[in-house]
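Q: What structure does this chain adopt?
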Amino acid sequence: CCGREPRALLSDQRNGASITVGDREVSEEQLKLWVQKELQSVDSATTLPRQQLAYSAMRVEVHFPAMELTAPYLAPTAFPAKCDGLHAFESKESAGAVPEAVLRRAVRRDGSSLSLIRYNTQLRLGSLSIARKHLDPVTGCHTFCIPALPCTLLENYLRDPKNTVPLKGGQVGLVLERNAAGVPTRAIPGYNSYAVTAGVFDPVSQSARTRVATVVPDKEGILQLPGCHALLALAAAKLKWSTDFIKRPYQVHILLQDHDLQAGFGWHTDGDGTSIGKYREGNLVALAIQLSCSAVSAMWVHGFQPCIYEGRGACVLFHGGCLHRSLPWAPHVFDKNPNCSVIKIVFFYADVPC
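A:
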């Protein structure tokens, strides 16, 4: 078998495999010697098969270490490191106050008040679930992880400037479809009027750092992007959801979070961000997946502790009706890495039993 030739075995060993003969592990030096003998047999006039020279009376086995395909790349490959934890972010004291402008949005048209944290309270009391999934009593979220490969494929597509195109009004769109000649035929814009940002609102900057799909052709176009189908199939297996359900989101948002904070949001509920309305928020859940391994990031559900995305493949399922926010990075993160950024894709599901 060509897979047992000395050169193939040497390549396997350099890629992490152990080569054994019986109960004895073969060293790299021995493999190199086998390769030399094999080459000599080609140069000489011997009629013996090459493998017979190297393997006479031998039983060769190749053992690759088991791969944990369900483990994410939790440790970021750039600053901040996993051990920094909450030290990578602004303090809860500086980010925790709910602005008066947000509170004013909780007043009904008839003048009566509508509590912004009513679902947060129900979540804490146990009378509300997140799509009937177990939630972490510390963070108020349901967290899990998926393999990194589909996240990498999707992130690479989203970061490639060749996959963007100018749109009307000065916006830049993400290309979802092209014709046979390679000309873009479908693209989605960002949003430029959602002022609940963690920084000073800038509509032009926000448009460049967000993408949103609300209609069926756009959502189906996102699912066709590299890695997206696999990403959702893996998440469905973890959540024990049907693939048919998970691939039919109410909306899909793509966020580039960096120093500008236009895609990092202050205190809000997702009834506003998705335009689903306050009266359907009780059954709105969001699945956020971090595609990047460049840094940790964090979100914070009011009344709980911050939930950290520890790297590529980190997934957070949370209740969209709950008051929550992004937790901004501390300034020292950008002192060490000015270009620090992560991309997340968020799938919203409406009318989910909670």
